[in-house]
Amino acid sequence: MGSYVKAEASGLLDGLEGVAREERAELVEWLVSEGFTVEHIRNTFAPMLMPAGRIVGDDGNYVSARQICDETGVDLELFQAMQQALGLPRAEDPSAPVLLRADAETAARAKVFLDLGFTREQLIAVTRVLGQGLAATAEMMRQVVLESVIQPGATELEIAKAYGAMVREVSPLLGPLVEDVLRLQLRQSLETEAVNLAERAAGSLPGARQVAAAFADLVGFTRLGEAVPPEELEHLANRLTNLAREVATPPVRFVKTIGDAVMFVSTDPVALLRAVLNLLRAVEKETDMPQLRIGMANGMAVRRAGDWFGSPVNVASRVTGAARPGAVLVAESVYDAIGSADEFTWSFAGARHLKGVKGEVKLYRARAADEE
Amino acid sequence: MAVDVDIEALGLLDGLEGDARTERVDLIGWLLDRGFTIDQIRNSAAAPLMLPANRALRDDGEFVSARQICESSGIELEVLQKLQRAIGLPRIDDPDAAVLPRADAEAAARAKFFLDMGVDCDETAAVMRVLIDGLGQAAAMMREAALKTLLRPGATEIELSQASEELALRSVPQLGPMMEDLLLFQLRHSLEAEAVTAAERAAGLLPGARSVTVGFADVAGFTKLGEALPPEELEHIASRLAELAHEVAQPPVRYVKSIGDAVMLVSPEPAAILSAMLELAENAAENGLPRLRIGLAAGCAVTRGGDWFGSPVNVASRVTGVARPGTVLVTESGRDAVGSAAGFYWSPAGARHLKGVPGEVKLFRVQRAADCG
Predict the structure, then answer these.
(1) Which residue from A145, A166, A233 is facing B309, i.e. has the nearest CB?
(2) What are the backbone angles phi and psi of residue A299, rounded to the nearest 5°?
(3) Distance between CA atoms of A283 and A281, rounded to whole angstroms?
(4) Quick one: which of A208, A297, B101, B354 could link to A312 by a disulfide (CB 3.0–4.6 Å)?
(5) Pick from B220, B219, B221, B226: which is nearest to B240 by CA?
(6) Rounded Cα distance, A128 and A108, in Å
């Protein structure tokens, strides 16, 4: 009861009424008994998740940027750049103890890359991409874990306890999982791109090379988005991604999903065309999935941070926009590169002006030869 | 010399001539001395020089079957195969064929604790897929950065192989603690971003669709630039845009992703994202980037695996497509959501038909109030 009064007096129940107020009072009382301060609770967006937060490092222990720099030997400018790379708000006063210690230590941790000989720019770029990749993972983990503890009618206190217990159990296992998966990705990135003699002789990284790029796009996705709930859109995009991964076997690489579209690249245009035709067929076999339009182009592109940049990527995207539902349309560059492979048949689809591309681009519709 | 003959007969030198052939012979001899087998070398046809680095990354050259991993981990075969596909391992029809590198197969089995917690198999696979995608980009970048520090003009295969092994050996002990820290960091912030409301708890469901404002910023004329500039410069423009977008995306605005020449941001607070987008347009101009086209829309969307789905995402993307270079366009839904927040100057930009959106959508151009007196 004493705590209830405290919760009331602290203003932590402001704006809450009825059951919500009672539940929050009960939660606050328990949090205080668990050692959380009223101040800490007040500054927290979701008090219910505080026990879980504490396990993952949100312990109410704050430090200044300057303090962490002294402890870790990272200079202030670099530290601030790393904070920004991780998406942390920048503290104006480097001597103000406003950074969660665990956050500040994480930012400083990236110093290992400097010790390994990376430049500052490289370090910041890698930190940003790592942070971004893990942010999506954390989001997903939070969702699946919450889903497994949330029960109809559960009180705030019950969820706080159940979620905290779950996170306590799981957190020691997360590090090894993520580490293993990163190592797997590192091994694969080393294998898939050998460094050839010319590149070694030049002493520089693999530069632009000839690749084919393709996009496959769900027809009418925007229209659908106006008619069905967002969950259904997500489900649809997810199905497309899964099918795309199924058809992408080396040397075809699945690059990414962009909303309602998937992107592939390959150094072998024949393999890529085969893969997208398979994808078209797979989607047609599915019930209640919209048709695809697919576009493909060939040219010089460069791979950076898992994504691809260059003319064939942009042109393939424009060609996709010009394709009819259910069709695979390729730019002349692809038609020329593939030549007379027996497994495809071609029909000329006219020369089109594509936005941003000079002159007209000859387009061809490709079909599998075994299609009747 | 006997070794050389083997190498030749096994086809390990096919397609190599002159210096390249001599270097490869040296490399293979060196690898054999260091305990790698001919089979390992043959299986890594694309990059035998990375074998030592891979060994440092725990690939011990052993292969296992799916069934073996099932037995050691206690995961059912069908579930394991799903997890393996989720992390991009090839589908292997025969569960008894020992063809998967042990280290790769074990990485998939690590996800078992999710299953033990009662998370279903599809959800677990979804977590793994998001994880592998996120780290794939990071791994590609780490590799690039590492090679840039290692590559020296005229280095031999053996030298490069040695240098990458050494770097891998030095970095491996650091990776674990760093990755754990980073993931916990992101978990802390994902907890902050979303409370669970009373209604959601009553229903026993996770936060579903909610009201958000979505914005895209797109480099005007990127396709045209792509026809005129080398790919490296295009990449530079795109990554500069992503950097600037990160800088303006301060909570409650979140950076969602970059898509080629565009970036996507989302926020539960419409005024905050509008302000961030205006700042992004200014920063892009100051940093010598081509002008941006920016579009925003508000509505209900769901988030899954860090991405967002729903009408405002599609509509914002269409609005971006019709924005003129250097301008910020907002749909009527977005304008209503921002309401009378101070600091913005609104001017009507007509009603447009947007592909896939029924009827016409009223659009407004937004500038900073300060810029318009």
Answers:
(1) A233
(2) 165, -165
(3) 5
(4) A297
(5) B219
(6) 13
CA-CA distances (angstroms) from residue B65 to A38, B38, B102, B112, B373? 55, 21, 9, 17, 71
Q: Establish, for the pair of chains A and B, how many residue pairs have beta carbons separated by less than 8 Å.
A: 463
Q: Is A287 on the interface with B (CB under 8 A)?
A: no
Q: Taking CB atoms and an 8 Å cutoff, what residues of chain A touch B131? A: 133-134, 137, 140, 177-178, 181
- Put simply, whether B311 touches A (Cβ < 8 Å) is yes
Confirm whether the ipTM is greater than 0.85.
no
CB contact under 8 A, A222 and B356: yes
Residues A291/B126, Cβ–Cβ less than 8 Å: no
Q: Please give the pLDDT value at position B2.
A: 47
The angle subtended at Cα B96 by Cα B92 and Cα B99, nearest 5°, is 55
Please work out, in degrees rounded to the nearest 5, the angle formed at the alpha carbon of residue A73 by the alpha carbons of A71 and A78: 115
The answer, yes or no, to whether the previous bond of B177 is cis (omega within 30 of 0) is no
Return d(Cα A111, Cα A117) in angstroms, integer: 10
Comparing C-alpha atoms, which of B98, B123, B199 is closest to residue A23?
B199
Amino acid B184 reads L
Give the whole-angstrom CA distance, residue B342 versus residue B339.
9
B174 at A interface, C-beta within 8 A: yes
Q: How far is CA A134 from the centre of its chain?
A: 8
Q: At what angle do helices B102-109 and B66-73 cross, to 10 degrees?
A: 40
- Amino acid type, B93: D
- Decide: A368 and A355 in contact? Cβ < 8 Å: no
Tokens of B118: 């009662």
* Tens digit of each residue's pLDDT, chain B (373 residues): 445 557 777 778 877 888 888 888 898 999 999 999 888 888 775 578 888 888 888 888 888 999 999 999 999 999 998 888 788 777 778 899 888 888 888 888 988 988 988 888 888 988 888 888 788 778 877 887 888 788 777 788 888 888 889 888 888 888 888 888 888 888 877 766 565 655 566 566 556 678 899 999 999 988 888 888 888 888 889 888 988 898 888 778 888 888 888 999 999 899 999 999 999 999 999 999 999 999 999 999 887 767 888 999 999 999 999 999 999 999 999 999 999 889 999 999 999 999 888 889 999 999 998 766 4
Is the bond preceding residue B312 a cis peptide, omega within 30 degrees?
no
Does A110 contact B178 at a Cβ distance shorter than 8 Å?
yes
Integer Cα distance of B287 and A64 in angstroms: 30
Q: Closest Cα to residue A207, out of A283, A128, A304, A65?
A: A304
Q: What is the pLDDT of residue B187?
A: 81
**Low-confidence residues in chain A, pLDDT < 50:** 1, 372
Q: Is B362 exposed, middle or buried (0-12, 13-18, 19+ CB in 10 A)?
A: middle
DSSP state of A351: E
Q: In this structure, what token pair is assigned to residue A344?
A: 């495809």
Residue B255 tokens read as 């950076």
Of B138, B305, B310, the CB nearest to A126: B138
Angle, CA A81 vertex, CA A78 and CA A87 arms, to 5°: 145
Judged by CB atoms within 8 Å, which residues 321-350 of A form the interface with B?
none
Which positions 50-109 of B are in contact with A (Cβ < 8 Å)?
50, 53-54, 57-59, 85, 87-88, 90, 101, 103-104, 106-107
Torsion of CA B63, B66, B68, B71, to 10 degrees: 150
The helix (run of H) or strand (run of E) holding residue B194 is none
**Separation of alpha carbons A214 and A191, rounded Å:** 23
Task: Report chain B's terminal Cα–Cα distance, integer Å.
Answer: 84
Residues of A in contact with B357 (CB under 8 A): 222-223, 226
